Structures are given as C-alpha cells and as structure tokens.
Amino acid sequence: MPENVVIIGSGPAGWAAAIYTARANLEPLVYEGALTEENRQKGTLPLGQLALTTEVENYPGFPAGDLGAYLDNSIDKSKRQYMGPHSGEGVSGPELMELMRQQAVNFGTRVITDDIVEIDLNKHPFVMKTLSGETVEANSVIIATGASANYLGLESEDKFKNMGVSACAVCDGALPRFRDKPLVVVGGGDSAMEEATFLTKFASKVYIVHRRDEFRASKIMSDRALADEKIEVKWNSEIDEVLGDETSGVTGVRIKSTKDDSQTEEIEATGYFAAIGHTPNTSFLNNQITTNDKGYILWPVSHRTNTNIEGVFAAGDVADDHYKQAITAAGSGCQAALDAERWLVTKGHV
Ligand code: NAP
Question: Could you name the CATH architecture of 3-149+278-346?
Fold first, then answer.
C-alpha cells in the first residue's frame, strides 16, 4: 500500500506539515535526513538549519524566560540529555526543533532518519529511493528540504574544509583551533552578523569581510555586530584567497578591494566562515519540478503550495527565495498539509 503522504525534510516546514497531516489522520511518514558526514558539511542533518543556530528571538510564542521545566517534561529523556540546560534566553534553534519534532510524533507521525536520494514523479503513486536503499511509494509528497549554505567556490576554500573553513559557526566555533585566535566571516546578511557575533565568544577578534559599504542584514543584527568591540568590518572587500598549509590548515585570508582590485591585504586568521546565502536542496528532484531562475521550487498558483506536478507540494525555504524565516516555513508547512489533504480527498485516495 502506498503511503498517504511522505514529507521530505525536518525543519519547521516539515514538522508543521507532519503535525497537520497527522491530526488529519493521514499517518504521515517523515524522512528527516541521514546522519552522514556529507550532510554535516552541507548543513542538511536532521532538524535543518535551525538546529545549527543559537537563540531564536523572533518565533512567536517563545519570549525570553525559563523554558527549562517545559523542555524536561515534553522532550524524550534520551534526547533531552544531549541538549544541555536551558539558557533562559527565549528558545534555542535546537530546542525549538526538538519540540516541533516531538509534537509531530505525539500525533502519530512516523520518522525515518534517512535521505530520499531519488524520486520518480512520472508515475503515480510516486516512487522514492532512500540513501540506505529502501523504496517507498506515496500518493502525495510534501517537499520541505530547505536550503544549504553557499561557499564562494574558491579552490583554496574547498582545500581547507574541516581544517579551518566552515559555513557553520555554531557547529564548529568552539573547536580548539578557533579559540583565542582571529577569525574571518564573509558576508553582509543576518547569517554573517549572527556567525560573527557568536564567534566573539571564542575568538580574539572577528573580521567581517563584506563586498559593499553597507550590510544587507536587519538593523538590530547589524547594530549588535557593529557595537561589538571584537568585530572589525572590512568594507568593500572580497576574499581573493584562503591562505594556509597542509599541516596548519587555514592561516589567514587575502582580501582585495572591490573598488580597486590592485589593493590587497592579508589577514591572519585560523578560521574562515562563509555566510553568503543559501541554495535550495532540490538536486534529488532531478529537474522534475519547475523552479525559478534561482532554483527555488515554484508555486504556480499564488497562496497555494501545489507544484507543477499534481500531488506534490512544497513548503519552507526550498520554495522561498524571499522571506526565509522559521515562522514562514512553518506557515507554509501547514498550508502544504491542508493542500495535500484536500487533494487526496478530491482524488479519492483517502
Ligand atoms: P542573505 O540575506 O542572502 O545575505 C547574503 C550575504 O552574502 C549578502 O550580504 C551578500 O552580499 C553576500 N554575498 C552573496 N554572495 C556573495 C559572494 N559571491 N561574494 C561575497 N559576498 C556575497 O543570506 P543570509 O544572511 O544567509 O540570510 C538568509 C535569510 O535568513 C534572510 O532572510 C535572513 O533574514 C534570515 N536569517 C535570519 C536570522 C535571524 O533573524 N536570527 C539569522 C540568519 C539568517 P550583498 O549584500 O552585497 O548582496
């Protein structure tokens, strides 16, 4: 028997879709992603990008306060023990994601810790293959695979991945090689501000290298970074090369001016963090779903989560090149669940 609905992805969109489809008795099956080194490097481990962030100050319903007791009671003890004590600062990304996952499980969602690596949308029921070699069929699919961090694409950047090059300060920032040393963050958006501010906990100094003379980041995040004594901004600058050697890994970066590329400067640093935006995780779809020119899944009908393939819905960052917020992802996950449910009923599948 094919599944009623398979949800691919485990960020806020995936869990919201699971909560709604589970409560509609559709018995959803979530593929939350596989625990692989490749997923770790791409930032696509289970629970998505929010699991890689620190405090979430803008998700409604979680003002600053002590959530500790609630987390102790609501999250399975086997997982709670790895989350550490609650900070008292609203909710953290990992806490929020575990709470969403638990809520989906409480309503009967089944969760498989694996990736969908192939999908055939030419026949119905849709057929999917997992990384571990299983096959699953489903009458409807909700794609909520999110987006992953971009790198600049320099050869020297690739060479030192895991040796000082990272796109996730929260995952790697506390490593010994980054402690009490100068570090570099490239980018001018909220991610760059967040990464730089976070890294000041460990680094002796953090340079933000940005290609323009103003940040794209929100005012509150920019102001926080600019007010931090440990942060120095290199305006109108881009990374020319990540410097280093085989034994030490990253030892610095060479930057050049975006106004006059004959002007270069070398900065000593043991770490380089890319924070230059994201690419939607759609490669497993093998071009079967229509996307926009940036590769984000297109919703052909405004305010509906249907894709160009009947029975396939998309939610969250994979279909959003504009808002990209936890709350908008969760909202569109709810929409996708309602759209999938109505479609399954209309077609007589349930
Ligand atoms: P973003 O807003 O797209 O910013 C990307 C930054 O990288 C921009 O400053 C861009 O420069 C720069 N950049 C892009 N390509 C580059 C290249 N090839 N070379 C040099 N610089 C390059 O991405 P983001 O910061 O990852 O944020 C994505 C979304 O997540 C946003 O909606 C953001 O609000 C949200 N977010 C929110 C929070 C929070 O509220 N706590 C935290 C993180 C992210 P230009 O400005 O010159 O284009």
Answer: 3-Layer(bba) Sandwich (3.50)
Residue 43: its pLDDT value, please? 83
Which protein residue's CA is at the shortest distance from atom 31 of ligand 1? 324
Domains 3-149+278-346 and 155-274 share a fold: yes
193, 324, 327, 328: residue to mutate for ligand 1 pocket, most atoms within 8 A of CB: 324
Residue 28 CA to ligand 1 centre (angstroms): 33
Alpha-carbon distance of 14 to 336, in angstroms, equals 9
DSSP codes of every residue in 170-234: HHHTTSGGGTTSEEEEE-SSHHHHHHHHHHTTT-SEEEEE-SSSS--S-HHHHHHHHT-TTEEEE
Helical segments of 43-166, H only: 68-74, 77-80, 93-106, 155-159
Q: What is the largest CA-CA distance in the chain?
A: 67
pTM confidence score: 0.84
Q: Domain extents for the chain?
A: 3-149+278-346, 155-274
Contact 189 CB / ligand 1 (< 6 Å): yes
93 lines ligand 1 (CB under 6 A): no
Give me the phi and psi of 189, to 5 degrees please.
-100, -170
Superfamily of domain 155-274: FAD/NAD(P)-binding domain (3.50.50.60)
Are 116 and 128 in contact by the 8 Å Cβ rule? The answer is yes
Q: Are 275 and 189 in contact (CB under 8 A)?
A: yes
Residue 28 has pLDDT above 90, yes or no: yes
Give the single-character DSSP code of 47: T
The number of C-alpha atoms within 13 Å of 66 and in the hemisphere containing its C-beta is: 4
Of 66, 72, 115, 171, which one is the catalytic site residue? 171
Distance of CA 33 to the CA centre of its chain: 12
Q: Residues 175-221: pLDDT tens digits?
A: 899 999 999 999 999 999 999 999 999 999 999 999 999 999 999 99
**172 catalytically annotated:** yes
